[in-house]
Design brief:
By secondary structure, the protein is an alpha/beta fold. It has one domain: TIM Barrel (Alpha-Beta Barrel). Helix content is about 35%, strand content about 30%. The chain is built from eleven helices and twelve strands. About 45% of the residues are buried.
């Protein structure tokens, strides 16, 4: 059985980790480097860093914070935000990232996924998709969930995986920060559509939500969350122990 991963997500704005609800109302949390070290020490399997305003502001992703984090933390780092070209991939990887997450950049230039996969390998290319229901259909949103692209989400994900994306982070805007559980219908549709690892994001509020996720959808490879970890509502060691007790394979320190 494949070990399920627990991944804290650090949304970074102006050099600080922030968190909101439904992608709005952002509040300051902590230093990204300090948080990353803490999560690494307590058993997180990977970390995801998003520079959440880089795309909307049309600027390059932070690199100083990334370089310092990579120097101190020795679990895989996925980094995204403002990834629009192969040069952006190169810059982030050279700063210590293990994988690069692309979202709005792929929407603007769908060939970016395939070009990056060919140059750096599928395992380096993570497709991040912000999805919201619009008139009963899953739609892709861009620019941190602020812009409806009009594209149907499942077909977009299938297309990008076909181009070479080696992993998919599915961010449900409908459940983001609400803490009512992961978006199981959306995640089910994605896992049925692709065979690469799928990371569930948006909606975790308690340990039971992770248990429900992995029991209901064995095809989901990882659970990603932010505020419940940031504010101490769920401790990663306790979460993993409960997962193990419920028959879910997980890495324990």
């Amino acid at each position: 059985m494949i070990t399920k991963r627990i991944i804290p997500c650090l949304d970074v704005r102006d050099g600080r980790v922030v968190k909101g609800v439904n992608f709005t109302g952002l509040a300051d949390v902590d230093s990204p480097v300090a948080l990353a070290e803490r999560y690494s020490a307590c058993g997180a399997d990977e970390l995801v860093f998003y520079d959440i305003t880089a795309s909307a502001e049309g600027r390059a992703l932070f690199t100083d914070i990334l370089t310092e984090t990579a120097r101190r933390v020795f679990i895989p780092l996925t980094v995204g935000g403002g990834i629009n070209t192969l040069a952006d991939f190169e810059r982030v990887l050279s700063c210590g990232a293990d994988k690069v997450s692309v979202n709005s950049g792929a929407i603007r230039d769908p060939s970016l996924v395939g070009e990056a996969a060919r140059r750096y390998g599928d395992q380096c290319v993570v497709l991040s998709v912000d999805v919201k229901r619009v008139d009963g259909t899953f739609r892709v949103f861009a620019k941190g969930g602020r812009e409806n692209t009009g594209m149907e989400a499942i077909s977009w994900i299938r297309r990008c995986v076909g181009e070479g994306a080696g992993e998919v982070v599915v961010n449900s805007i409908d459940t983001d920060g609400v803490k009512g559980g992961f978006d199981l219908p959306l995640l089910s549709a994605v896992t049925e559509a692709v065979s690469v690892p799928v990371i569930a994001s948006g909606g975790a509020g308690r340990i039971a939500d992770f248990i429900e996720l992995f029991r209901a959808l064995p095809g989901v490879d990882a659970g990603l969350a932010a505020s419940i970890f940031h504010f101490g509502e769920v401790a990663i060691p306790e979460l993993k122990q409960k997962m193990k007790e419920n028959g879910i394979e997980v890495r324990i320190l």
